[in-house]
Specification:
By secondary structure, the protein is mostly beta strands. 0% of the residues lie in helices and 43% in strands. This is Nitrogen fixation protein NifZ.
Length: 79
């Protein structure tokens, strides 16, 4: 079992994407591999959770298009 990792980012924090975020199948009404947020898109963290198997933080980020996407720490950075 992995030790839980403390989140680097907090609820309400503004962030931007470091990579293109694409649909991995989590959005059933959007084609798989469709672009959800381009690299450099800004948004706000609306919830911080934990992936139970790997004990890694997951951030729900609301982007300007009112789309909420789950992100890993490697995919975002503070604005």
């Amino acid at each position: 079992m992995f030790e839980p990792r403390s989140p680097k980012f907090q609820w309400g924090q503004r962030v931007k994407t470091l990579i293109e975020l694409r649909n991995d199948g989590g959005y059933p009404d959007v084609p798989e591999d469709a672009l959800l947020a381009a690299e450099g898109t800004t948004g706000e963290i609306v919830q911080v959770g934990m992936h139970t198997d790997s004990n890694t933080p997951i951030y729900l980020v609301e982007f300007t298009e009112r789309l909420v996407v789950g992100c890993l720490e490697e995919e975002i950075e503070p604005v």
